[in-house]
Amino acid sequence: MVPVRLSLLLLGAVILSLLSIGNPQIVTIQFLFWRQSFALYKIILGSVFLGVLFTVIYSGHVRYIRRIRQDRYDRDY
């Protein structure tokens, strides 16, 4: 039996690959004075990878804070 997390990961990878294949158009990104043209699939992939990176960093930080609080609680009692 395939674990649920692995199934969701594979489903997400399939959806991401379909989005990437289906969006080869060139789009222009403009932020303040900066303007650059990219293929849309590169923007999609970059957004997903940055989202994963920020999620890993945030969840690691939350786990660290919970562990510190638990250690303080254990030490006080």
Written overview of the protein:
The N and C termini lie far apart (43 Å). Strand 1 and strand 2 form a beta hairpin. Helix 1 (4-22) runs antiparallel to helix 2. The chain has one domain. It has 2 helices and 2 strands. The chain has helices at 4-22, 40-76; strands at 26-31, 34-39. A two-stranded antiparallel ribbon has the order 1-2.
Key features of this structure:
77 residues; alpha+beta; two-stranded antiparallel ribbon; 73% helix; flat
Strand line-up in the sheet with most strands: 1-2
The string of secondary-structure elements, in order, is HEEH
Helix percentage range: over 70%
- How many strands appear in the DSSP assignment? 2
Strand count, sense and barrel status of the largest sheet are: 2 strands, antiparallel
| Terminal-residue CA separation | 43 Å
Strand content: 15-25%
Structural class of the secondary elements? alpha+beta
Low-confidence stretches: none
- Could you report the average pLDDT, rounded to the nearest whole number? 85
Oligomer: single chain
Tally of structural domains: 1
Q: Please compute the radius of gyration using only Cα atoms.
A: 20 Å
Shape: flat
Present the secondary structure layout.
Layout: H1 4-22, E1 26-31, E2 34-39, H2 40-76
Please outline what is shown here.
This protein has one domain. The chain has two helices and two strands, in the order H-E-E-H. The protein has helices spanning 4-22, 40-76, and strands at residues 26-31, 34-39.
